[in-house]
Amino acid sequence: MANRNVYGTEDLDAPVTRADFERALRHLNLSDIDLRDAVLQLAARFVALTDELTRRIDHVEPEPAAPNTPATPTTQTVEWNVNAGLADALRNVRVGDAAQPTRVSIDLDPTDKYTVENESPPCEELFHLCKARCCRLTYSLSTQDLDEGVIRWDYGQPYLIRQRASDGYCVHNDPATGGCTVHANRPRVCRSYHCRDDHRVWIDYDKRIPAPHFEGQFTDDAAQTPRFDLLERARMRAKAIMREKASISETFADPEPRLGPEVTPRTKPSSG
Q1: 33 falls within a domain
Q2: Residue 268 lies in a domain
Q3: Around Cβ 37, how many Cβ atoms within 10 Å?
Q4: Domain that holds residue 33
């Protein structure tokens, strides 16, 4: 049989595409999140067990029932009470976890970024004063940004906006003009942000008095400070992770047929 080009095949030393690489990283990041969630559930069970044993040692609870005995109001097994208190313990553990820095950050807002309508500052008039400081803020991207593949993220700190080491600016910032080179695809955070009341940018926005120059990267304080209770934040994070899992599982690595190199068919070795 003559050699022929085979669909879906690549040379063994062919470079991995950025799309394939990012899909693999997103899967690993989700695995990290799943592992963290498993640890939180284990921690919650440990807390519930500790609480139950403490109550029994202090004789606050009735004596435990014998193994495999149906629980009654006066005789309850330790396992029964631990399972009964597990939901509250897990909720409290998740609330505490929501207040801690995470290895994987994602924009929790489910809003379609292209529907965000917000008053924008006159950036071109202000660049010479503010030096586009907003482009040095650190913030998380959304699943929508990741799917589009236009906005770059930091592989070492998923899914934070990718920034330059030389000056701390977003990689999409034009160093010559201060403008955004992906303005049409900018993330939701950029669309909803206004520098008017940001003390890192202005001492007085109306009088156009910029804040003192700051060397190094900014952190998005608004994103780090909970604007709602921690339980709600934990719930929103769970929803964001579900969207990310669905997004990866419902997309494909190869968008269209790709003709590969010629492949030589293997021949069955002759028997000696």
Answers
A1: yes
A2: no
A3: 15
A4: 18-98
